[in-house]
Amino acid sequence: MGYSKQAIIGISWIGAFRVFSRLIAFLRVVVLARLLVPSQFGVFGIVTMALALLEILTETGINIFLVQEKKGIDSYINDAWFVSIVRGLLITIFIILTAPFVVSFFKIPQSYGLMLLISVVPLIRGFINPSIVKYQKNLQFNKEFFLRTAIFCFDSLVAIVVSLITRSAIGLVFGLIAGSILEVILSFILIKPTPRIQFNLQKISKIFHRGKWVTLYGILNFAASKGDSIIIGRALGSGPLGIYQMGYTISTMPVSEVSDVVNKVTFPVYSKISEDVVRLKKGFIKTILFVSAISVLVGTVIFFFPKELFVLIFGQKWADTMIVLKPLAAYGVVRAITGTTSSLFLSLGKQNYVAGITSIRFLALIITIVPLTLAYGIVGSSISVLLSGIAELPLVIYYMVSIFKSNNKEIG
Fold first, then answer.
1. For the chain, how many structural domains are there in total?
2. How far is it, in rounded angstroms, from Cα 263 to Cα 305?
3. For the whole model, what pTM was predicted?
């Protein structure tokens, strides 16, 4: 059975969702940028970084395991749900316990209340029905589109309404909570089987064994992706952090979204044809050429028209963001292209490859981020991020060559 047509349809559906959701996200940012000041965005960024870190540290790789699994996954749903609930509870407890330390580290006392409120989010997300992964595994991206669209629109609506009422970043947190609640409800209504609280230690052990590299990758990827924001928040404060994060989001969003859309579709497709090296190679080459063309085009527009993107759209108070756009736009292009390899490696069970590549990016970042930030501010931070993306290129190429060096050899 050929999967090219299904892949194209899948990319169309996921692409449509990304375009729609990012349009809504863009409009939401425009509205909130008029309501809030850069320091408020910075406070929200610190709170969400803390949440993201704890989610990464407790990542089990359940969804990747379920997609990779060649047999039916229904027998794993109860175990996956049990692990997810326990994980969500632990993250909530950790956020509450560590909130004072995070506030002290960044010296932003106004973030304490937001951290306590956002601790509810992982607890709610823990109850999402793991069967939701079937939409991706079975290439049912039309259903994924309507599910994600409903959740995202509800999240955005709540965030804007509460922000209009409170004139604070608390609206963004309420949006996350509302979206999480809706996802739990829809996952039980729309997708079967419905999980029950029970577990099998042997199955749970298998999930954790397969997911250990995913956990390591997640930790390293968080450090490589958020290390710049942590350093800026600590060294320069919430104002520069808010400006930098706005520039990072806008300059990397269009190109990274291309890679994210393609990876979400190609991962299950590659998993289905992972034993046919010829088909896998042809599919991957088509994918990386497509992503490269789109990423370079969009990145070029961002690189050469920073003023039109910010001052005219977001207002004069965000004018300082333009100074970081060019290096971050170049970084977005590099990451979009190299990021297409992750779905290939994961489909072959090469989670260690993904972790290795990310470790190089992380090392390059920690070596350069502090001296460049202290010397040149957020401009230095953006240059450090670009250098980290370039540093991982040699290892990406090496792993690709090692996989495709012989079409006659079986991929292990």
1. 1
2. 28
3. 0.64
